[in-house]
Amino acid sequence: MSARSNDGSTPLHTATYNGHTDVVRLLFGKGAYIGVTRSDHGVTPLDLAAYNGHTDVVRLLLEEGADIEATRNDNGSTPLGPAAYFGHIDVVRLLLGEDENIEATRRDSRTTALHNASWRGHVDVVGLLLEKGTNIEATGADNARTSLFNAAMYLQTEVVRLLLEKGANISAETEQAEMVLHLVFYGPTTHLDLRDLSP
């Protein structure tokens, strides 16, 4: 149960990464430690299952008492961040149902789950996070950009529309006094229709 590969992975890490629910259950039956971390980045089995969207494995890990607030030692992220980034809405829903901190941020970038889902265009995840009360105006370390700014910058029209419908501040400024409308006229989003910026 404690054998490790070169990157510090145990059999439990491998099984959760690949979504093998029955194997994970078997390993627990043989005494595998749920809180084991990989030696490279402090990654837990829950991190890996959430990252890859293995909903059944995530559910099993939570039933076995996995720590949803455990953070990686390289960037400080919790399982919610990558689940939102990759659009795994069922995993996001499970984690939020276990009261994971919806405002948890990466240590290096201060980005939240809403930032991740917004710039990647996962409108369903964005909607769920907003429904659960996430801070729509939270800013990351990268020039203090909001989720609306990031969504506009990466041309995620549906996300832009949803954020505005939910009250996102279109006039919010970054640390360099940039606004979403500046992107429309001068930046990479020059072909974003102004009608998309109307709530």
Describe this structure in words.
This protein is 44% helix and 0% strand. The protein has 199 residues and is mainly α. The longest helix has 9 residues, at 21-29. It is elongated and about 55 Å long. The termini are far apart.
What is this structure's SSE topology?
Blueprint: H1 11-17, H2 21-29, H3 45-52, H4 55-63, H5 80-85, H6 89-97, H7 113-120, H8 123-131, H9 147-153, H10 157-165, H11 180-186
Helix pairs in contact: 1-2, 1-3, 3-4, 4-6, 7-8, 7-9, 9-10
Short précis:
By secondary structure, the chain is mainly alpha-helical.
Question: What's the main sheet like?
Answer: none
> CA-to-CA gap between the ends?
54 Å
Number of helices: 11
How much strand content do the residues show? under 5%
Helix/strand structural class: mainly alpha
The strand count comes to 0
Net shape: elongated
Query: What is the H/E order?
Result: HHHHHHHHHHH
Rg computed from alpha carbons, rounded to a whole number of angstroms: 19 Å
Model regions low in confidence, pLDDT < 50 over at least 5 residues: none
- Percent range of helical residues: 40-55%
Q: Report the mean per-residue pLDDT as an integer.
A: 84
Q: Which descriptors would you attach to this protein?
A:
single chain; mainly alpha
